[in-house]
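Changelog note: in this version the structure field was regenerated for every chain. One regenerated record is shown below for reference.
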Amino acid sequence: MPAGSGPRQLALALDHTESLTRDDFLVGPSNESAFAIIERWPDWPDRVIALAGPGGSGKSHLAAIWAAQSGARFLSARALSDTHLPSALATGALVIEDVAESALDERALFHLLNLARQDGAWLLLTARSLPAQWTLALPDLGSRLRAIPAVALAPPDDALLRAVIVKLFADRQLAVDEPLVGYLVSRIERSFAAARSAVALLDSEALRRKRPVNRVLAAELFRDTGSDTGP
């Protein structure tokens, strides 16, 4: 808990583990289209949908929300191979995470797309870039991926980044004040991944140093990054 009673407190009481439920997903301009397509299921424009965005942009959270609705299983793209195909669609829905053109069994993915359409199953792909932008060795796979509806997630704006920082602290049962949140927004990279790393660092350093989590500690840890707009 931060020291002092002056600043307005932004307090929530949640478990230390970051929650990935629908109610915990924070919607803003950067992710509202992706959230909307997940909410539309099963009224999707296609049996296969792709979510693309930078690391920590919320793709995994959205995938978890959809999996809870659809009963989907999860499979890392790196683990995808022809040997997984007979059982991959056992529940009728599957999330393929972290698809990257540089580390992809193209033939296995092509067969999986065909199998999903044949069986009437649902697929959700997550990736850092849009599938239509990938350079692939298998032309048929490229044409299939270009036809898949894809939604991009952008870096968060200030308001969403602030809300995410408050939530990440709340997940650790920490109440934080406006000066600390504003300072972090001005110092860290504009991404959920950077916010997650900053909150984890502040929490661990506060415990190690037996110090409160506040702007003073943040200034010591992040003084060499970003542009300080605060006093």
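Spot check on this record: The domain at 23-152 is CATH 3.40.50.300 (Rossmann fold). The chain has a mean pLDDT of 87.
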